[in-house]
Amino acid sequence: MQRAAASKIRAFQKEVWGYYRLHKRGFPWRKTKNPYRILVSEIMLQQTQADRVVLKYKEFIKKFPNLRALSKASLKSVLRAWQGLGYNRRAVHLKTIAREVTVRFGGKLPSEKEILMSSPGIGQSTAGAVRTFAFNKPEVFVETNIRTAFIHFFFPKKQKILDSDISKIVEVALDRKNPREWYWALMDYGAMLKKAHGNAAARRSAHYARQSPFKGSSREQRSKILKMILGEKISTKKLLAKTGFSKQILAHHLADLSKEGFIRRSGNYFIVSK
DNA sequence: GTCCAGACCG
DNA sequence: CGGTCTGGAC
Known about the structure:
By secondary structure, the protein is mainly alpha-helical. The protein folds into 3 domains: about 90 residues; about 100 residues, Orthogonal Bundle (Endonuclease III, domain 1), CATH 1.10.340.30; about 55 residues, Arc Repressor Mutant, subunit A (Orthogonal Bundle), CATH 1.10.10.10. The protein is about 60% helix and about 5% strand. It has 14 helices and 3 strands. A 3-stranded antiparallel β-sheet has the order 1-3-2. The structure holds a DNA duplex.
């Protein structure tokens, strides 16, 4: 497909808006245009089901109501608030962004795409989402629900579809008068398709990668270690006993977690970094 | 077992 | 480019 026919685009828009009118989802981050709250939601929603984010989002906003508050908070308190979401490094990213924005921009999140994308944990998709939902800018971005929606409708038989090809149609189909709601509608429509047809469409993306099992993985081991360190000041010896990991495995993860800015050694103990 | 409003390193 | 990262839902 070189260029989706204009009539096909219109049919798609009609289908998506029609679905949205009857089945729109009401998430707390859809009730605000506050850039900080939008940012928190978008970071939380990376690779994490929306339903699972709702409660954590509310608690996080309550505890850290703005960038300045988050900037002042300890990393430990932020990581504790993050427990249960996964991808703990996202919490570190958010805190880093909060500090940067507080120092450089007086606590006001910039809307420029280049500045957003130069921040840790913000890539193409998250920058586009923040600009769309907080600033109502007509951005072009692709995430998993959008990918599913466009593949299902515009590439019904094709395999190994590139995001760059999807983006071209996203741009043409974009509602420039109301990008915020258009993207909500797209995501709701894509999420519905996934429930109805499973992951069949997403598997035809060139960027699709099946996830390896979590059980028994190094990811599971890391999270176990970090959780223990978040709970109390804990010696290396006690970590060894409580995790049941080998000395080599434990040392490996402790080195990684230190390098990534989660923890630091303090004598015979490991504690959360500042 | 497989997935999720992706980002980032090598 | 591929590999990796979290943890709960189903």
